[in-house]
Amino acid sequence: xxxxxxxxxxxxxxxxxxxxxxxxxxxxxxxxxxxxxxxxxxxxxxxxxxxxxxxxxxxxxxxxxxxxxxxxxxxxxxxxxxxxxxxxxxxxxxxxxxxxxxxxxxxxxxxxxxxxxxxxxxxxxxxxxxxxxxxxxxxxxxxxxxxxxxxxxxxxxxxxxxxxxxxxxxxxxxxxxxxxxxxxxxxxxxxxxxxxxxxxxxxxxxxxxxxxxxxxxxxxxxxxxxxxxxxxxxxxxxxxxxxxxxxxxxxx
Length: 252
Ligand code: SF4
Hints:
Layout: H1 16-27, H2 31-42, E1 46-49, H3 54-66, E2 72-75, H4 82-95, E3 99-102, H5 108-115, H6 119-122, H7 124-140, E4 145-147, E5 164-170, E6 175-180, H8 188-197, E7 250-251
Helix pairs in contact: 2-3, 3-8
The chain binds iron/sulfur cluster.
């Protein structure tokens, strides 16, 4: 691999060319080898952020099978489907893990009082910033590595995702970490096959036509053959990402 033993200590100084070289090295490894590398280099300063969709569940399951005790978190906006909350409890029980829920500063009632009711209908960018991006930003400040389930096949905004990226999550303070996307090259069918082979719990909404599942007000069904898995999110708005992977910061 060519990773130096001092890699973890050098995160704060890692520059884009170096990270790209490390990412290219990781491309040649299996998923298990990638996860083991991350654990060896970063331990618990790397954490899995999951919205409990298929790829995230694959990462959680493989990590447990390999005995890699990464911390796990999810962003609970207060607007998730009840099926997603049930799935969280099922995954915790099945894998014997705790998934930390990150909450927005404001309750829905407080947000409605300040910005008006159903902000997502008028300004989804602001709503996502308040309910997803800011809680996540706070969490990322504690970490060296954010492990995600991003896959290139999910849609145009994700088609160039690298296995490892240098990610600025706070432009004002010029703070960044490494974003680790070990399943970047996995197609949807491979994820599905893995979940089925290991009898892992799945969100029942998946079989009802929801290919990408976020907050209830902003998630819609798609036909089974839809090319863009995320086209059912924020239907009617020129918006394809909540900002967690885009607005929040950028790969630099
Ligand atoms: S997905 Fe919709 S409801 Fe959820 S935080 Fe974003 S705009 Fe608000």
